[in-house]
Specification:
alpha/beta; Dna Topoisomerase Vi A Subunit, Chain: A, domain 2; 4-stranded parallel β-sheet; 4 strands; globular
């Protein structure tokens, strides 16, 4: 069993298999990372980069596959909880249904949130390059009622059309639209910014504030982020300098703080407090309706 104490392990060569002691070090480090993080939002890829930075794993795709194998073994043995990691790939089409009218009202009472941005002068969204960090960003953005949009690479024409259509409505209502973007520092990742802004403006005549928050060149050195060789097969690689860094390598607490900073700067606190008070009154009304529902039915 794991002792809960870990230190960096000598990285083995490709020809040497890890010993049980080596695996114990990786397990200890994993449990410490999970304990210090929000277990519902960390992903395996994010864990991989944390272990690389600790010297427990090599920075290769083979090592990532090895880690996936270790995790499956440790989850099956009960050493690592099954719910320790986020996976945004599991989704399904499904109609919203309820067991009864009372069930529908109860869920409404529990989930009701007022749109706090209706009376704010700005409209804010958080965009990211990949699903892997969407849940981490939403941990913070969701508490402010701000949506997170994973582009999954370059956004499709339909996705940008739908986004532009919504932005036009906010602009028509007198709001400034702000998009804060989190993506890889690599040839394609850094091109997404300019491509998105250009397409929104040229194709849909929408002019918004679009800012890349991470990964920035100065953050690579400041946070000592693990790099990887830039893929020469990328058609944009010729104009890109240096090695690449994935957004997954950024510390989760730093990402959350960045999201919070981006959002808070646009909040009129006095108006926000007013809306919070209204929301509380509305919740009270819903709960009162819920309390008398059995008598009515």
């Amino acid at each position: 069993m794991s002792t809960g104490v870990y230190q960096t392990s000598p990285i083995k060569t490709k020809r040497n298999r890890r010993t049980n002691a080596d695996l114990e070090v990786i397990l200890d480090a994993t449990l410490a990372i999970i304990k210090s993080s929000d277990a519902k939002s960390i992903t395996l890829r994010h864990l991989f980069y944390r272990l690389v930075s600790l010297g427990c794993l090599r920075k290769t795709e083979l090592e990532y596959k090895n880690l996936c194998g270790y995790m499956m073994k440790w989850r099956r043995s009960g050493e690592v909880p099954w719910d320790a990691f986020a996976d945004n790939t599991r989704w399904q089409y499904r109609e919203t249904t309820f067991n009864s009218m009372e069930d529908a009202l109860r869920i409404t009472c529990e989930s009701y949130r007022r749109n706090m941005w209706t009376t704010q002068e700005a409209y804010v969204e958080i965009w990211c390059e990949k699903d892997a960090i969407a849940s981490i960003l939403f941990d913070e953005a969701g508490s402010f009622g701000v949506p997170v949009f994973p582009l999954r690479g370059f956004a499709s024409g339909t996705a940008l059309y739908n986004a532009a259509d919504g932005f036009k409505q906010y602009i028509a209502a007198g709001k400034e639209v702000y998009i804060y973007y989190f993506g890889d520092h690599d040839p394609s990742g850094t091109s997404i910014d300019t491509s998105t802004i250009r397409n929104l403006k040229n194709d849909h005549n929408v002019d918004i504030h679009f800012e890349r928050i991470a990964v920035l060149p100065e953050q690579i050195e400041y946070y000592n982020l693990p790099t990887r060789p830039t893929k020469k097969s990328d058609p944009r690689a010729a104009k890109f300098k240096g090695e690449s860094v994935e957004i997954d390598a950024m510390p989760m607490d730093v990402l959350r703080d960045m999201v919070s900073d981006c959002i808070i700067r646009h909040i009129d606190r006095r108006e926000w407090e007013v809306q919070l008070a209204v929301e509380q009154e509305e919740r009270t009304t819903l709960n009162q309706m819920m309390s008398v529902f059995p008598a009515v039915t």
